[in-house]
Amino acid sequence: MPTVTIDLISEFQLSDSIKAELKELLSACFPEVDYNGRTYFKQLPHYRLILSVDKQIVGQVGIDYRAMNLNNALVTVFGVIELAVHPTHQGKGLGTRLMLEFEQIATTHSNNVDFLFLVTETPAFYERLGYKATTQKVTWLKINQGETYGLGNEQVDDCCLMFKSVGNKHWEDGELDMLGYWY
Ligand SMILES: CC(C)(COP(=O)(O)OP(=O)(O)OC[C@H]1O[C@@H](n2cnc3c(N)ncnc32)[C@H](O)[C@@H]1OP(=O)(O)O)[C@@H](O)C(=O)NCCC(=O)NCCS
Predict the structure, then answer these.
(1) What residue owns the CA closest to ligand 1's atom 9?
(2) Averaged over 88-99, what is the pLDDT?
(3) pLDDT band at 128, cuts 50/70/90?
(4) Is the pTM of the predicted complex or chain greater than 0.90?
(5) CA nearest 48: which of 40, 122, 180?
(6) Where are the domains of the chain?
(7) How far is the CA of 129 from the centre of ligand 1 (A)?
(8) What's the pLDDT score for residue 157?
(9) From the CA of 90, how far away is ligand 1's center (Å)?
(10) What would the pLDDT profile of 108-125 be if each residue is shown by its tens digit?
């Protein structure tokens, strides 16, 4: 039986060899994205969950932890960045395991996390896990290839924003100021 491990690592602690493996993983999973030699698309995540099979990295999810302004109230948000499972290991439940671990960490620290949040074009994968779609007019910092180029402020309808409650706060459709970049 292969040994599957999931490790929570702070971004600043990543070794060069882990970063090399992550680069390969991300370009295999997101061939349409130009990573330009980076291990992240827009900005460094705060943490990553790294999934290995027999010590080889085959999956990851970045975690962004920040405050956002939802309908004029500050909420604390655990965000999913670049969930990825290598194509040769997809369909074996590993993506689900990463998402369950992500949720478990947030739930363990529910005094500090109000909502899980993500942006996706494949909502069906996350609906199975209890995430719900939300319609928002979003404000965010526009970043591309290492440069800031403006502020977005738009009703978003070309991709799916999804959330899941961790604490007791109520999420409503309306206006979401991401207080930072869009991941
Ligand atoms: C999305 C991804 C992480 C899923 O990982 P995975 O390990 O293959 O997922 P799982 O094996 O845990 O899948 C569990 C279930 O979700 C379904 N599923 C998997 N990927 C899906 C997708 N893209 N859309 C809808 N359903 C999906 C599977 O069919 C499976 O359903 P079942 O339990 O009824 O058989 C992986 O396909 C991937 O890395 N894709 C490329 C990168 C990407 O699109 N990431 C998401 C960005 S939002």
Answers:
(1) 95
(2) 98
(3) very high
(4) yes
(5) 40
(6) 4-181
(7) 11
(8) 86
(9) 7
(10) 999 999 999 999 999 999
pLDDT at residue 84 is higher than 90: yes
> What's the pLDDT score for residue 121?
95
Give the mutation target among 60, 61, 85, 86 for probing the ligand 1 site: most ligand atoms within 8 A of CB. 85
Q: Which CATH superfamily includes the segment(s) 4-181?
A: Gcn5-related N-acetyltransferase (GNAT) (3.40.630.30)
For 16-31, what is each residue's pLDDT tens digit?
Answer: 999 999 999 999 999 9
Protein residues whose CB sits closer than 6 Å to any atom of ligand 1? 29-30, 83-85, 90-96, 120, 122, 124-125
